[in-house]
Write a structure and sequence with these properties.
Blueprint (H helix, E strand, L loop, with lengths): L1 E3 L2 E3 L1 H7 L6 E4 L3 E3 L14 H17 L4 H10 L2 E2 L1 H7 L4 E3 L1 H4 L5
Parallel strand pairs: 1-3, 2-4, 3-6
Antiparallel strand pairs: 4-5
Helix pairs in contact: 2-3
Length: 107
């Protein structure tokens, strides 16, 4: 199981999305945020390795969710935030655990 009981951002959101399909759970009142792991502003001088690292979360999320790469890139740049229901719709998680269940996630 991959579980985000209250909050996930950055790499935690990617880990949640990469969990086993059908076993990715979030708390009923969880806040999930897409945020870049590094600056995503590219210039002609940006080294290829940095561009690759900037694009890695986009590729990972595109493989783990039904979203298009350009949508993911835009959402990462905006720092898009989801409530539990919208995180399900986006494909970041599969089920919402009620509050009573979220207090026993790790037990």
């Amino acid at each position: 199981n991959t579980i985000a009981p209250r909050h996930a951002a950055g790499i935690a959101t990617i880990i949640l999305a990469c969990g086993t399909k059908g076993q990715r759970r979030i708390g009923q009142h969880a806040i999930i945020q897409l945020s870049p792991l590094s600056s995503m502003r590219e210039t002609p001088e940006t080294p290829a390795e940095i561009v690759r690292m900037q694009n890695a979360p986009i590729e990972i999320l595109a493989n783990c969710t039904p979203q298009r790469r350009d949508s993911i890139r835009e959402d990462l740049l905006r720092g898009r935030t989801f409530d539990a229901q919208s995180a399900l719709g986006y494909g970041l998680a599969d089920t919402i655990a009620p509050d009573s269940a979220s207090s026993t996630f790790g037990k």
